[in-house]
Amino acid sequence: MSQSGAEPVMPERHYLNAERGLWSWLTTHDHKRIGLMFLGLLLLMFLLGGVYALALRIELLTPGETIMSRLAYNRSFTLHGVVMVWLFLIPSIPSAFGNFLLPLMIGAKDVAFPRLNLASLYLYVLGAAITLWGILQGGADTGWTFYTPYSTATGTAVLPVLLGVFVVGFSTILTGVNFITTVHTMRAPGVTWTKIPLFVWAIYGTSIIQVLATPVLGMVLVLVMLERLGGLGFFDPARGGDPLLYQHLFWFYSHPAVYIMILPGMGVISEAVCAFTRKNPFSYRVLVVSTVGIAFVGFLTWGHHMFVSGASTLGAGAFSVLSMLVAIFTALKIFTWLGTMYRGSIWITTPFVYVLGFIFLLFFGGMSGVAVAVTSADIHWHDTYFVVAHFHFIMVGASLMAFLGALHYWFPKMFGRRYPEALGIGTAVLIIFGFIATFLPQFLLGNMGMPRRYADYPERFQPLHVASTAGASLLGFGFLIIAIYLIWSLRHGRVAGRNPWESRGYEWTSESPPPKSNFHEPPSFPYPPHDYARPDVAPEVGRAA
Amino acid sequence: MEGTLGYGKALLVGVALLALTTLSYGLSRLHLGNWGLVVALAIAAIKVSLVAFFYMHLSERSGGPRLVFATAGLFVVILIGLILVEASDRPAAVMPPGPFSIERLPGLDSQPGGEGGVR
Amino acid sequence: MQPEASARPVVPHAEHFGDEASRQNAAHLGMWIFLATEVLLFAALFAPYALYRLAYPELFHQAREHMDLTLGTINTYVLVSSSVLVALAVASIRKGRELVASALLVGAVVLGITFLCIKGMEYAHHAKDKALPGAHYAFHQFAVPGASLYFTLYWIMTGVHAVHVTVGVGVLSVLCGQTLSGKFSAAYHTPLELGGMYWHLVDIVWLFLWPLLYLS
Q: Is A152 in CB contact (< 8 Å) with chain B?
């Protein structure tokens, strides 16, 4: 235990210096290195998507053209969506932290198919490159949803963007296959199904969604590509086709996709809540059941994106009720986390501030989701900024906060160093307030009638738009500070020792940074994860200290 | 291993598959109308089950693979089922071919669409 | 757990597994999950078929007369037989009969190529009639509204399937070569089992395509 009086030391050999040279990284089978490479690429993609976001917000400072033409605006929000959803959020926690932590958390040496893991990384790179090429050709102007018949008819560079997303989709499918198989077949002795850490359950649920939903997206994108390339599709009404069919197929994937974006974050929160309140989860079973419940019921709700498309009212009603059911699972999770915190021994750290931000913002994001799930109310809110605010509350306010929380919680694990805690906490608070300043006005704007994807608007909306842009600048500033101090900490941060958070998670039984084979001896975990009721000073199982 | 697939079982299943194919073809010649589709799909489902259980080793491996097979089937049903539920209740004007009749097949006297189309 | 639970993994690149049983379980489970993704991929084509069949019931009924039932049925027998040969090949390799397994795989490959040739003949017939997909449709004998939709569905569904058959033929050929070169034995033949499963999936998809497109 690092607090035994001695200064924490960095282990001599670990996965970062086990082999040296660029080639050893490019051909690695080590899930930890692959996770790190994913992390770096994801952060670059986040930067790209963020630049688009700032451009959009600057354009919206004034009605009329501010800094770009209408076509450029359409391209900007399309590419902002495409990059943020497919190149950042969907792979974010699973491909970076899932890759790094999954084997550690179940006591395995690696994932089930390490070479396939490397293939996932290269497919992601290829898909990102193709999308970037599309961006360089101007990019699509269809919105990230590529609705037909506009997407099959427009003259902008839709094909490379579709192809890029298609390839990235394969990357996530292969990752999903890998993770599910790993959880089923590579758990160490003692890690039974009821002892799997909550983050692993979250990644497992996410992988199931990825594996089942992404192929449908792949096929529908191929169909749009075929229609653009050779007129070969069947969504064209002029030939008797049905544009709503596209929407069905697209949203069958894209609604579960939003659960791909939130479930891993919920797993991070479960881990961090237990660690920083020094308490066992209020109910492990509820958290597991609600994870699987979200994964499953999330597939039954896609029609709520089509309430005003002309779909059937019976269908609309059914999808409305089903969409509200999903919120029940989220609410169960929130109550369980709060129950865990109650009478816990709270330790305010940067990850914990992100946890608090996550829970607070997920609450409002989720409630606004139930609101738009009400069909009659959605007729007013559909395609307005109300919906934009709703999904940004979840995707940024919750999902991104969880990503940042994960980054700070596992930074010592991955690099063996600490970042400056006070700066971390201060920036986290700045980001939370910046976020609220950015997106709370958007709820009001949407309710007042401001449509989404519009660059122009009536004068009376301008004050709220200006407020939103001001908030976005705060957000951007906060991210910049994080980037600076994290990069600084890579080299100059205080050495962390094996377990600076005194967490009872299985991954902390190994060294920080871990050795290449994860554990020096085959671990066995006779205790449940997140078990803070045991009086031991620190988890000594696995003899990894 | 339990229930290993040997020559005998493989051939037996094979004969069953070919017989069911013949049955399906024969029944289709009877022009059973809407029931024809149901019968044909039912026979297909039986054949698929035979292939999955015996040729794809589901009978040998319990647990994971069977769960995967069942889950995939369930989600195919969800996808197609919910789409059909929605489409069957849609107002006729919004269902293809839409409220206007398609007089001529488009594309017969104009160029086929391609990349770009309407600018 | 399988009886070989205590054996070490028999292949290189498998040291992260604790034992041979885990390696086999992981290989089979992973393959099944991949096949599930393929099932969902095709489901995204069966769903449009279902929707358009609901929207154009008479059209789908009439379209049957313009499909080549004979060629389609022959193809079904061809593909089913190839599946039987693959199953027999796996049974052979489990008994250590490598040559028999290779011969059976060659037979399956030949049948797979036969399938593709027959499909090509069908495509050629339809192309001659100008029953082409999408915007290129000009089949005058079947010019009711939505007819081009049926043929577009036909071309795309069988086309995607044919791509998978081609990949499967490639996979089986590679496995055949590896079996001949002695890479597999009764103790280790996982790639052959997994490749065979891919071929069986291709067969399964056709078993649904055939009744939907040709029979009714």
A: yes
Domain that holds residue B84: 62-97
The token pair at A406 is 């994960």
Residues of the domain holding C86: 16-215
C-alpha C8/C-alpha C29 separation (Å) is 19
Residue of B nearest to C72 (CA): B25
Would you call B102 an interface residue with chain A, using a CB distance cutoff of 8 Å? yes
pLDDT < 50: residue spans in chain B: 1-2, 103, 105, 108, 110-119
Mean pLDDT of all residues belonging to chain A = 93
Tell whether B28 is covered by a domain: yes
Per the structure, the count of domains in chain A is: 1
B83·C47 Cβ contact <8 A: yes
Dump pLDDT digits (tens) for A364-392. Answer: 999 999 999 999 999 999 999 999 999 99
Eight-class DSSP state of A186: -
Hey, are the CB atoms on A311 and B78 less than 8 Å from each other?
Answer: no
Pick the more confident residue, C120 or C140. Answer: C120
In chain C, residues with a C-beta closer than 8 Å to the C-beta of B11 are 84, 88
pLDDT at position B6: 83
In chain C, the residue whose alpha carbon lies closest to the alpha carbon of B69 is C36
pLDDT tens readout for residues B50-81:
999 999 888 888 788 999 999 999 999 999 99
In a domain, B116, yes or no: no
Closest CA to A170 of A229, A130, A111: A130
Residue B80 and residue C53 in contact, taking contact as beta carbons nearer than 8 Å: no
Question: Stretch C96-117: mean pLDDT, rounded?
Answer: 95
Per-residue pLDDT reduced to its tens digit, C127-170: 999 888 888 888 888 888 788 889 999 999 999 999 999 999 99
Out of C29, C55, C135, the one facing A231 most closely (by C-beta) is C135
Of A212, A300, A315, the CB nearest to B86: A315
Q: Tokens 């607070």 correspond to what residue?
A: A360
Give the pLDDT confidence score for residue C12 in this predicted structure.
66
Domains: count for chain C: 1
Query: Do A315 and B95 lie within an 8 Å CB cutoff?
Result: no
Whether residue B22 is contained in a domain is answered as yes
Q: C156 and A234 in contact by Cβ < 8 A?
A: yes
What is the rounded distance in angstroms from the CA atom of residue A91 to the CA atom of residue A209? Answer: 13
Q: Is residue A460 part of a domain?
A: yes
Residues on chain B touching A153 (C-beta within 8 angstroms)? 116-118
SS3 A270: helix
The complex's ipTM works out to 0.93
At A203, which CATH number?
A: 1.20.210.10
Query: Is C4 inside any structural domain?
Result: no
Q: How far apart are the first and last CA of chain B?
A: 63
Dist. CA C14–CA C91, nearest whole Å: 24
Question: Per DSSP, what are the bridge partners of residue A495?
Answer: A417
Q: Structure pTM?
A: 0.93
A&C contacts, CB < 8 Å: 121
User: Nearest Cα to A212, choosing from C4, B17, C37?
Assistant: C37
Among C36, C40, C149, beta carbon nearest to A241: C149
C204 vs B: CB within 8 A: yes
Instruction: Please name which of A89, A80, A85, A90 lies closest in space to residue A141, comparing C-alpha atoms.
Output: A80
When CB atoms are compared, the residue of A110, A177, A216 closest to C30 is: A177
How confident is the model at residue A310, as a pLDDT?
86
pLDDT tops 60 at residue A126: yes
